[in-house]
Amino acid sequence: MAFGETILAGEPPKSLCRPAAGHMRRDDDFEDESPPDEPGFVRPEDAALAGYSAGARARVVRVRLVDPTNARVVIDTEPSHPVTVYCRRFGNLWYDWGYGSGED
Predict the structure, then answer these.
(1) Is residue 39 within 8 Å of residue 92, measured between CB atoms?
(2) What does DSSP assign to residue 38?
(3) For labelling, which of 4, 37, 52, 84 has a CA lying 20 to 30 Å from the CA of 62?
(4) Which distant-in-sequence residues (6+ apart) come within 8 Å of 2 by Cβ?
(5) Buried b (16+ CB within 10 A) or exposed e, 68-102
(6) What is the DSSP code (8-state) at residue 8?
(7) What does the pLDDT profile of the chain (104 residues) look like in tens digits?
(8) What does pTM read for this prediction?
(9) Backbone φ and ψ of 56, nearest 5°
(10) How many CB atoms lie within 10 A of CB 50?
C-alpha cells in the first residue's frame, strides 16, 4: 500500500464495537509520543475496528496512509454512521489514535 493510496475494504472481523464518546485523543495527551497502554495491531484497519462489537456491524470503507506512521480509516456501521478513525504506528504496530465524525 502506497502513502496517500485509498484502499476499499471488504467485510470486517465479526466481533468488534466503538468505544463510548470521549475517546478522542488530543495531541497533547501523548506529548512523549509513546504508544498507549493497549494492544497494538498489524494493520491500521484492525486497530480502527478494535472498539466495535458485532452488533454494530462495523465495516471498513476506506484506508488511507497519510505517511509512514499515520493512517485514516473510514468505518461505517448499521444503521449508517460513518466515522473516521485516526491510527498511529509505533514500531510495527498500529493504534487507534482518536476519531472524528463523517468521512475524512
Answers:
(1) no
(2) S
(3) 37
(4) 65
(5) eebbbbbbbbeeeeebbbbbbbeeeebbbbbbeee
(6) -
(7) 455 544 444 444 333 344 433 344 444 444 457 777 888 999 999 999 998 998 999 999 999 999 999 999 999 999 999 999 999 999 999 999 998 876 65
(8) 0.68
(9) -75, -20
(10) 21
What was the pLDDT predicted at 86?
Answer: 95
Residue with cell 473516521: 84
Distance CA 96, CA 35 (A): 10
Q: Which three cell numbers stand for residue 92?
A: 510495527
Cα-Cα end-to-end distance for the chain: 18
Residue type (1 letter), 46: D
Name the 3-class secondary structure at 100.
Answer: strand
- DSSP code at position 92: T
CA distance 15 to 28: 31
